[in-house]
Amino acid sequence: TRNACQPAKGGPFSYDAWVKGLTAGRSVATNGPLLELEAGGKGLGETLRLDAPGEVAVKTRAEASVPLSRVSLVFNGQVIATGAQEQNVRLARGGWLSLRAYGPGGLQANTSPIYVEVAGKRWTSSDDADYFLGWIDRLEEKLNARDRLPSPELKARVRGQLDAARAVYRALKP
Q1: Assign residue 117 a region: left if phi > 0, alpha if psi is -120 to 50, beta otherwise?
Q2: Which H or E run contains 162?
Q3: Helix-helix angle 152-171:126-146, to 10 degrees
Q4: Which of 40, 77, 85, 121 lies most in the core, judged by the most C-beta atoms within 10 Å?
Q5: CA-to-CA distance for 164 and 34, rounded, in angstroms?
Q6: Burial class (CB in 10 A: 0-12, 13-18, 19+), 60
């Protein structure tokens, strides 16, 4: 399994490789534990494409300087397996996989996802889209109330970014 900081084909660590990996979605948010996740030969930030629902080989690894209290394989926000191991998991629909770990003293880590398409379909959630549409609306309300953007050009740019974000989440709704 490749390190999240390495380029897609592996290789030595460098700042440029780290930025490319981060941009490609190969990252781990952590305050200590180190995590690795691979599913069907795909790594973090990549898309696993299945022709139909089926079993997928998943490899997970979690390491820390102290024993971890919980390691969870997550699919679309739901824990589907616990512990770091190699196993087969059944994926019946599109979505995303990630690995989470928790330890004593507030240790935590979470990988970015591996995306899953089944029969050409990705998973979307109308509830999640609604949440983020509401969040964008609240953000815009606060920006308008504070009125701290220094120029009409910047205000127009921010409005355009918010509208573009709304379009993304509206497109996810059935």
Answers
A1: beta
A2: helix 152-171
A3: 170
A4: 40
A5: 35
A6: buried
Nearest-5° angle of CA 75, CA 80, CA 85? 105
CA distance 16 to 5: 9
pLDDT value of position 9? 55
Start-to-end C-alpha separation, the chain = 36
Q: 109 Cβ partners below 8 Å, 6+ apart?
A: 28, 29, 30, 31, 32, 33, 34, 35, 62, 100, 101
The separation between CA 22 and the C-alpha centre of its own chain, rounded to angstroms, equals: 11
> At 88, is the secondary structure helix, strand, or coil?
strand
Q: State pLDDT tens for residues 100-147.
A: 999 999 999 999 999 999 998 777 778 888 999 999 999 999 999 998
Residue 12 predicted with pLDDT over 60:
yes
